[in-house]
Amino acid sequence: MSKAYRGWVECLARENDSRIILALDLFVEDSQKLLARSFEVLKSAAPHICAVKINEPMILSLGLYDKVQRVLELAHGFSLPVIMDCKINDVGHVNLSVVKHYFKVGFDAVTACPFIGWQDGLKPVFELAKHAGRGVVLLVYMSHREAEEGYGRMVMDPVANKLRPQYEVFAEKALKWGADGVVVGATYPDKVKDVYKVLKDEVPIYSPGVVFQGGRLEEAVKSGATYIIIGRALCEAGRVEEAVVGFKEAVNNVLRSLGHR
Ligand code: BMP
Questions:
Q1: Rounded distance, CA 157 to CA 181, Å?
Q2: How far is the CA of 231 from the centre of ligand 1 (A)?
Q3: How confident is the model at residue 261, as a pLDDT?
Q4: In the prediction, which pLDDT does 102 show?
Q5: How much is the pLDDT for 2?
Q6: Which residue, among 24, 138, 18, has the nearest Cα to 71 in the 3D structure?
Q7: Mind listing the pLDDT tens digit for each residue in 25-50?
Q8: Which residues, at least 6 apart from 200, have a Cβ–Cβ distance to it below 8 Å?
Q9: Using the 8-state DSSP alphabet, how is residue 114 labeled?
């Protein structure tokens, strides 16, 4: 397990008293304007979040070895770890090459898709991440409407010799492979609960899908989510700082009501 990344997020969550991860999802076509808006959002949110997540549209628009590095520098200047949400899903040697680029420019963690399995799939990614002190966060149940089609179907578990939901098998793989986190959609609090039963506090649950996708932050936290990933509800907010403080307090209120602080 790559403690370095995982411990860093935990530390920031304590220091900033926040379980909110900013998904820097800005759909601005002009790359200069995109960079400028990224800076604005990041600066406003930074004191109130515990990590930043960047996705592929940003890389395509800003350029990995170009303006993306400036976003990384800014985030790191605030001591924030940055996750590359690349949802790795190819054969092993290609995955390795992709991840090497992301780690080289300074990303602290990557997301990965467990359907590809271990040997010649995610093994090289986990090995490199562990070696470099970076993180790997596995998708276990996505937040969109059709998530059930893949993550929810019943599959034969050869070890238990019975049919089980795919996402439960993935949660067990997260433990076995030493993942630094799993993604479970806030839109499915029952799945968050099921996954938490498997992981307990061994592997943190990252939960996206609140507000715009219809998920309720309070339900996700009550069900066992450790971190809440928020994109548009922050990036498109008129007052980013006010919005992020509101979300952070909402999470903290639930944790207080559960006696976790
Ligand atoms: P928003 O809060 O605007 O709905 O954005 C959610 C973010 O979380 C997006 O960056 C998306 O790529 C990511 N995400 C998701 O929504 N559902 C998943 O199952 C996995 C994700 O990474």
A1: 22
A2: 7
A3: 59
A4: 98
A5: 41
A6: 24
A7: 999 999 999 999 999 999 999 999 99
A8: none
A9: G
* Helix, strand, or coil (residue 152): coil
Cα–Cα nearest to 55, from 100, 89, 86, 88: 86
H/E element, 41: helix 31-45
Between CA 114 and CA 87 the distance in angstroms is 9
**Cβ count within 10 A of residue 32:** 10
Q: What three-state secondary structure class fits 20?
A: strand
Ligand 1 mean position to 252 CA, how many Å?
A: 21
How far is ligand 1, taken at its centre, from the CA of residue 141, in Å?
12
Which of 20, 170, 229 is the pocket-test mutation for ligand 1 (most atoms within 8 Å of CB)? 229
- Ligand 1 site residues (CB inside 6 A) read 23, 25, 55, 85, 142-143, 183, 185, 208-209, 212-213, 229-233
Q: Model-level pTM?
A: 0.97
Which DSSP symbol is given to 193? H
pLDDT in tens, 61-94: 999 999 999 999 999 999 999 999 999 999 999 9
Please tell me the distance between residue 31's alpha carbon and the centre of ligand 1 in angstroms. Answer: 21
CA distance 6 to 75: 16
Check if the beta carbon of residue 208 is closer than 8 Å to that of residue 214.
Answer: no
Distance of alpha carbon 67 from alpha carbon 69, whole angstroms: 5
Site to substitute for ligand 1 among 21, 22, 24, 25, most atoms within 8 A of C-beta:
25
Point out the ligand 1 atom lying closest to the alpha carbon of residue 184.
Answer: 19
